[in-house]
Amino acid sequence: MKKILIMIVVLLMSGIVMAQGEKQQRTTKSFLALHAGPSFPVGDFAKTDINNEQAGFAKTGVNVNLTYGYEFLENVGLTASIFYNNNKMDNSAVLDQVGNVALDHWQWYGISVGPMFTQKLAGNMAIDLRVMGGVANANSPKAVVDNETVVKEDWSPAAVFQGGAGLRIGMGNRMFIMVNLDYLYMKPKFDLVFPDGSPTVRSEQKMSVLNLTAGFGIRF
Q1: 201: buried, middle or exposed (CB in 10 Å: 19+, 13-18, 0-12)?
Q2: Which of 73, 97, 114, 174 is the most exposed place for a label (fewest CB within 10 A)?
Q3: Mean pLDDT over the full length of the chain
């Protein structure tokens, strides 16, 4: 009888451990996604009026993101994103208003963190709403005239506000497709240095974009 009781206890304990293991496997609170897509300048950043001091002359560019999310409650979590943006300049507009000047691009990279609010939908889908803050290292364009640099590029750190929404569509057990629309805003200050020895000029630039991205992720 003693041996039978021991066997029953062992079987019960094994069943409990297996059930807990299956439950843990089904509960995935974290995800990681790589997504990329076009970056659309908005506001003054997209303006091409030389009389507007904040006009950025920025064109549609590219944005790449690595996004992590953790749901510590059923519909509330924390998210973080590492990002890179590159937006080329509208040199045709520059040529029309300034003359024979070629500018390369605006670009930046950074990280942002903030709360995430998730709503589960039918069909293994979920919507994420994010409000994030962080820091970026932004790069001003280099200006070239007749193959000679007349204004050097500059790198400057800046605080970043980022907010957006994303749709996650499950594919199988853990994989999913992610589609995001994010708004990013910052206002870095650049030192415009002239190789001819002219005094350095301090310039502030409003930079705002809408990033539309898609990619793949995994839950774990």
Answers
A1: exposed
A2: 73
A3: 89
